């Protein structure tokens, strides 16, 4: 009697005859299909004109993309191959095989509808009482753009190359007009060489024009900030009757700086400092995460490497959500989000901010964990009240939720789901892709938060 199971590849049925029997009841693919097919996708359906060949249903394509992002298959070509190789993808696709062009076009066209779908999924989480959405955490993470930092061109370097290319073009034009071209190397075609350099000059001129346009926008913004600082300084001097201390603000400089860059592959991406040191071509992906369920409530992508200016737009995204989701009681953020203006913005939105004002010591004295701060003297500004709150035991306990809320979400997205670089290019397309990533995370998390009786039927 053989000690091994027989190998027989001539079996008539390698899979059960029904697609419903291919996966266990608790499988993530089943949950994704169940949720997506229960959504209102009428806006997506209306986007199809009804001409040409019969289209794949948007619910099936959306489920394929969400499950792909949840399991690390982001490329439309990988998803197409998985529709043949993976039981889960075959289940979602009903044993059909949408080609990669169909998947890529669907992802590229329907970013606005994906955002609406994202909100519907949050409403399902609220209706299923997965969370009360009372305390949220805000953080950002740098995600590599689909472009190399070596493809970036600075304004100063562009001017140097431009001068060199113009000199070379003029030299070649002089050679072309000369009667004696004996010193010309063999195999050199002057018209081809001149055209190649003129094409590069055209590309450099376009890049310089875009950098100059950015510089104008930056100057207008900095000029407005400069005038506001001057007005505040003058108002303070009038109120106190004394000359304000400190150096007066420096006026901004017009025109592009030599170090200002544009990436020739993805001009919307920016060089940003990344964790661990160094600089890479990135986008700054922001997320507001619910502290109770770890669901992402508001995804956003910005070109700014600094987080300080992201409080207002993220609060606006929160307040645009439907009732029950749009008014958390508290928002937690690290020191990168702290400023007096941001504290005031949070209070204006009727949300209590707990934004760290500095880094805590790694090894504080053990008594500090059990001590309460002295009472706050009245009157106290909103910033002073927040600082006092952060020193209380209740405030420290609440702020501690931040590290176990938003940072694990980013860690799982990058290390478990494997999303470390955008596939798409351009800010609008990258925003669509980050929404899909966060949508995939939310469904993955909601599947894990299902009642145990549902998961193990």
Name some characteristics of this structure.
flat; Nucleotidyltransferase, domain 5; 16 helices; 47% helix; 457 residues; two-stranded antiparallel ribbon
Rough outline: flat
Assign the structural class, choosing from mainly alpha, mainly beta, alpha/beta, alpha+beta, or little secondary structure. Answer: alpha/beta
Separation of the first and last Cα atoms: 38 Å
Provide the succession of SSEs: HHHHHHHEEHHEEEEHEHEHHHHH
Helical element count?
Answer: 16
CATH class of the largest domain: Alpha Beta
Describe the largest sheet: 6 strands, mixed
Strand content: 5-15%
Mean pLDDT: 89
CATH fold field value of the largest domain: Nucleotidyltransferase, domain 5
CATH architecture of the largest domain: 2-Layer Sandwich
Global Rg: 29 Å
Q: How many beta-strand runs?
A: 8
